[in-house]
What we know:
Layout lengths: L3 E3 L2 E3 L2 H11 L8 E5 L20 E6 L9 H9 L4 H6 L1 E4 L3 H13 L3 E5 L5 H9 L3 E4 L4 H15 L2 E2 L6 H17 L5 E5 L4 H13 L4 E7 L4 H8 L22 H10 L2 E5 L1 H15 L5 H16 L5 E5 L6 H9 L1
Parallel strand pairs: 4-12, 5-6, 5-8, 6-7, 9-10, 9-12, 10-11
Antiparallel strand pairs: 1-2, 3-4
Helix pairs in contact: 1-2, 1-7, 2-4, 2-7, 4-5, 7-8, 8-10, 11-12
Amino acid sequence: MELITSRSHQLVTLDDIRAAAGRIRDVAVRTPVLTVPLPSRDGRGSRPSGGPDPARPMLALKCENLQPMGAFKIRGACNMIAQLTPEARAAGVITFSSGNHGQAVALVARHFGIRAVVVMPTTASPFKIERVKEYGGEVILAGTTSLERKVRADAESAARGLTMVPPFDHPAIVAGAGTVGLEVLEQQPAATTVYVPVGGGGLIAGVSAAVKQMRPGVRVIGVEPEGAAKMSASIEEGHPVTLPTTASVADGLLPVRPGDLTYAHVKAFVDAVVTVTDEAIVEAMRWLFSQARVVAEPSGAATVAAALQAAASAMDEHPVAVISGGNIAVEDFTKLLSG
Length: 339
């Protein structure tokens, strides 16, 4: 297998991603792609007759919100846990997460019949905490940032002999996430731009690795909330940087620092990283619900916010937005959409 390197980091290959696709097929699902007309420049979403305008570009939505636990995270978690030794499985696994990765680890661990511990922030959504418990995970609340959660998870791992399943900065996690990119190109062969949300960077690292090694001409755009633009800051500085704080309605995109490995993938494969406001994210959630009947959590709708902004200024022929998750309580969803 050919190795791809970026300075000191070995980047995942197509072989890695294709192998991951084989490992996860019994746990993760091949999510559908829906298409919806982008608004015209005057803001109208359809023709007066009510039908879509064939002259306007369509936005393709890769619906990872339809995974068994409601987010793409199940792909990386499954790819890593499936490769653990029998001894490691017997001891159990641990992770640190704001919610979706924790749910994924708990669900995958249940599938394999092993113990899972999830360290979550004290500010975590009660909805996501309850979901982790429903999947059989043990929840520990610690701190408010990803770095604080990691410290506690590392301590628990050492004390209890648990294998760490990191949320983003690991080759197996990146390769698992990369299976989204494989499916996007198979389902949308005419894709010209793929928008991917950026938290710690695992999803965009994997998707960009898949897309650029298969179709180098397809643009890959990362999307961050303005209040959590750690990857943008890192690109500007030329190395991963740690933000003092992050804040956004998109709770799944709040790590204060990208991973070293994920940053290396972004530098190697990603065309640009853009930011969107919380207001734009909420409007994208509203648009998704009204135009596509899709329920997306704020983190999952960030890509649509960026695609809608791009459509307002310059038409992209075949854009694809990855809807990374849909884990949000009904009351929170309706509260956000009602303003």
